[in-house]
Hints:
Two copies of one chain form a homodimer.
Chain A: H1 12-22, E1 26-28, E2 35-37, H2 39-58, E3 62-63, E4 69-71, H3 74-77, H4 79-85, E5 88-99, E6 106-108, E7 113-120, H5 125-135, E8 144-153, E9 167-177, H6 180-200, E10 207-210, E11 222-229, E12 235-245, H7 247-251, E13 255-257, E14 263-265, E15 267-274, H8 276-285, E16 302-306, H9 311-330, E17 335-337, H10 345-354, E18 359-363, H11 365-370, E19 372-377, E20 383-387, H12 391-416, E21 418-420, H13 424-432, E22 436-440, H14 445-455, E23 458-463, E24 473-474, E25 481-482, E26 485-489
Parallel strand pairs in A: 3-8, 16-17, 16-18, 21-22
Antiparallel strand pairs in A: 1-2, 4-7, 5-6, 5-7, 8-9, 9-15, 10-11, 10-23, 11-12, 12-15, 13-14, 18-19, 19-20, 22-26, 23-26, 24-25
Helix pairs in contact in A: 2-6, 9-12
Amino acid sequence: MAKEVTNRAENYSQWYNDLALKADLAEQSAVRGCMVIKPYGYAIWEKMQGILDGMFKQTGVQNAYFPLFIPKSFFSREAEHVAGFAKECAVVTHHRLMNDPNGGGVVVDPDAKLEEELIVRPTSETIIWNTYKNWITSWRDLPVLCNQWCNVVRWEMRTRLFLRTAEFLWQEGHTAHATAEEAQAKAEEMVQVYARFAREVMALPVIVGHKSPNERFAGALDTLTIEAMMQDGKALQAGTSHFLGQNFAKSFDVQFANKDGKQEYVWATSWGVSTRLMGALIMAHGDDNGLVLPPKLAPIQVVMVPIFRTEEEMNAVLDKMHAIKKELEAMGHSVRIDERDTLRPGFKFAEWELKGVPVRLAMGARDLAAGTVEVARRDTLTKETMSLDGIAAHIDGLLEDIQQNIYDKAEAFRDGNIEKCDSWEEFKEKIKTGKFLLCHWDGTTETEQAIKDETKATIRCIPVDTCVCKEEGKCIYSGKPSGQRVVFAISY
Amino acid sequence: MAKEVTNRAENYSQWYNDLALKADLAEQSAVRGCMVIKPYGYAIWEKMQGILDGMFKQTGVQNAYFPLFIPKSFFSREAEHVAGFAKECAVVTHHRLMNDPNGGGVVVDPDAKLEEELIVRPTSETIIWNTYKNWITSWRDLPVLCNQWCNVVRWEMRTRLFLRTAEFLWQEGHTAHATAEEAQAKAEEMVQVYARFAREVMALPVIVGHKSPNERFAGALDTLTIEAMMQDGKALQAGTSHFLGQNFAKSFDVQFANKDGKQEYVWATSWGVSTRLMGALIMAHGDDNGLVLPPKLAPIQVVMVPIFRTEEEMNAVLDKMHAIKKELEAMGHSVRIDERDTLRPGFKFAEWELKGVPVRLAMGARDLAAGTVEVARRDTLTKETMSLDGIAAHIDGLLEDIQQNIYDKAEAFRDGNIEKCDSWEEFKEKIKTGKFLLCHWDGTTETEQAIKDETKATIRCIPVDTCVCKEEGKCIYSGKPSGQRVVFAISY
C-alpha cells in the first residue's frame, strides 16, 4: 500500500489526522490554525452544502450575504455575547501596507490606522441584527428568514483539521419573528433539519436535545444540538440551533408594529453547521484502511479499475467499463474509471479504499470473457464476482444498501456504548471507557460543573426524542430529585 | 408606483443606485465600503455561481478552499505583485479583545499582538502558490486546476454597490502547468468561458481581448479580459484571465521534474469574476422602470397577479394560476403567484417591473370566463391578451425570445456606439459622448498614458475575435505604424 494509515486502536488521534491528510481532504496552511481544504475534501463539503441548502430552502429560508467585518463596538452591545465570543478573534487595525523606508520589505503604514477596529466575524448576530433594524418596521415584514454560507474566524489556540480551526466554513441562519412561540418553533424545526441531514445523508445516528444553561450559546435562551458519537466513544457536537429571545433585538433596537399598532421587540433564532461535519464524517465511519464515505456524500461513488496485459485486453475492458459508466451516470451516479497506466491495480485498490469510494469494480480479460466483474464494497471490505447482466441496476441497489448499512453500523455502535447509569462510582469508571451515560441530574450548574471537574464529562444534551430518558429519578451526583435523564459524555 | 426610480437621462449614477437599492439587491452596511447582499440580489448571484461552476467543472477544474489570511511577508516575494496589490488592504495585527480595565467597553488586548501581521486576501496567488509547492514534484502532478469561491478585501476609498466595494465575492481559478503553451491555452480557454457565460447567460455582448502591458494584472505576462458596454457608453471590465508565466513559481520555488528528470519551474494562470457582474447586469439591461433580468438569471421568471372582487372570483383565478404554475415548474421555470391581499394589482405590477421579472401574467374573472390571460413582457413593456390553451408552452417559448431579445438589444446598442476613428480631434470629441472607439495605437505605454491624461480614455483591450480590427494603419496619437486597431473607452 502506498500510504500507511495508523491503526485506530494504536493511536486514534493520529489515525484521524492520517485520514484527513492522506485521503487528500485537507492540510495545514502557512497561516497558524488555518487549513487548506483540498479538492477531494471540498467536493464532499460541496455535496453537504448542496443538500443542506435545498433543505433550508424547503423551509422558506433564503440566502443572503453580510459583511466579513464587524465594528468592535457592536460586540459591547449584547453583554453575554461579548463575554462568550469577542475574546479570541482576528482584529483589523490598519488598512494599508507600504514599502519599508529602511528597505526591509513591506511594513504596515502607521498612518493608515482605522478609527475603530474591525473584528473578523466569529459569528454574525450583531452585524445582521444591525441590518435587520432597517428591514423590519411592521408585522408585515416578518418573518425574515436568512441564511449565509461564509467563512468565520475564532482564534483557537489548539487546532485540529476540520474539528477546530481558526478559520472555518459554515452556514449561519438568522431568523426574525413576531412571537416567541414562532421563533422557538423555528429553532426546533432547524435542529430537526440538521438531525434529518445527519441521519439520512451523513449516516450519523445523532441525538437531538437541549443544551444545559451552562453550555448554551452566548446570548441564547435555549440552544438545541445534535450530538454524534465518534468511534472512541466521545461526543461531537455537530450542529446547533438557538432561540435567542429578544436579546439581539433589544441590543440593536429592532422593533416592529404589531397588528394592533403597538411597538414590540422582534424574536430571534440562529443556527449553524460547519466544516466540522467533515470531521464527524471521518471519525464516525472511517476504518484502519481509510475513509468510509456514505454514497450520498461520496464525490466518486463507483470506481472501476481495469486489469490487462496487452493493449487489446485493455481496450476491450475499457470499452465495457465505459458502457457501464454511461448506464450508471444516467441513474445519477458519479463514476470514475481509473485509466492511469503508471500504477499497478493493487496500488489503485488501496488508494480508492483510503479515499472511501463506496463501490469498486475490477475487471480483466478473463472476467470479460466470462461475462463477470468483481464488485468490492468499501463498507464491509467484501468482494463478489457478479454477472455483467444487469450490473448497473445491481450497483444502484448496492449503493442504497451501503448507505443504510453504514448508518446501521454506526447506530449499533452507539447503542452498544450508551447506557443508563445510576451509581456515581460506576459513572466515574465507565465515562473513562468511552460511553454515553444516561443519568439523572438535579438541573443545577453547580452539579454539572462538579461532575465536569471530576471526570471531564459534560452534559451533551437533554434529549427531546429519546423516550427512555423520560422517567423520574435522583441526581447521580447530588441525589436530589430529577424529572428526566440527560446524556453525559466526554466531548471533542 | 411605490418606489420611484430616477430616470437614466436625468442622473445615470443615481439611477444605478436606485435600482440596486429599490429592487432589493444590496445596500451599504455599517462597515465602510462593505455591502449587504440582500436575498433577491443573492439569488441572482447564486444562479451566476451555479452556471459558471458547471462550466468550470466541464473544463476539468475542481473547487478547493485556501486561507482568508496571508502572511505579510508573502507579499514581498513577488515584486510586481506587491506593487500592484499589497497597498490598500485590511491588516490583522492582534488576536484578542479584552474588557477595558477603565470600563470603556471592549478594547484590543495589547498583549495579543501577532508576531507577523496577516493580510486579508485581496487575491490568493501567493498563499496558493505557497501551497502548490507541496503538491507538485513531478510532471505527473500536473496540471493542477483549482478554483475557489470566496470573499476578498481591497480597501477601496470610493465604493459603489457591486461595482467597487471593500469586500466582494468572487471566484479565483489558479492553475499550474508543465509548459508555457499549455498555461497560455488555459488562460485563453477560461476567458472564452467567461465570454460565453456573459453572452449566453447574462445577455451581454462582450468584447474579448488582451490588456495592454500597462493594464495587466500585477505579476502577469498576459491579461485577457471581457469588456462590456454599459448604457452610458462606458466600458466595464467584467472578467479577466491571466497568464502568469513562471513568476509565482519562482517566487515560491515551485519546481517539477519533467519527463527527462530535469527540474523546471511551473507555469501558471489565474482568472476571476466577481459580484461586479451584478453591476454589469443592472447597468446593461435596466430601464427607467427598474431592472430587466435575462430569464436565465431571474430568480422569478414568471409572476402571476390575480385580479378579483369576491372571494369566489379569487379562488377560481388562483386555481387556474396554480395549474399553470405547476405546468411551468415541470418545464423547469420558477414561478411566483403574488397572493398578497393587502396590495392593489397596480402596485404589484410596478414592484415586479422594478424587480425585472421577465414575464407577468394578470388574470381576472372575466379573463377566466373568456379563457384568456394578459401576458406582459418586461423587456419590451408590451402586453398581449392570450388564450389559456397552451399558455405554458407559449411562455416557455416567450422566455427564450426574451433572453435573445435582451441580448440583441444590448448588441444593437453596442454596435451603434462603437466605431472606427482615425482622427485625434474626432477622438477627443467622440470619446466624451460615450463611445467605444476602434483606433490604431503604436504599442507604447507612453502613448497610452498621454491619451489617458488628455481624455480619461484607456485601452480596454486588443481584441482577439473582431476581424474589423485586423488592419494596418497609423497610431491615432503618434502617427507611428500600427498592425491592428484596439478598443479605447472611458471605463468604470
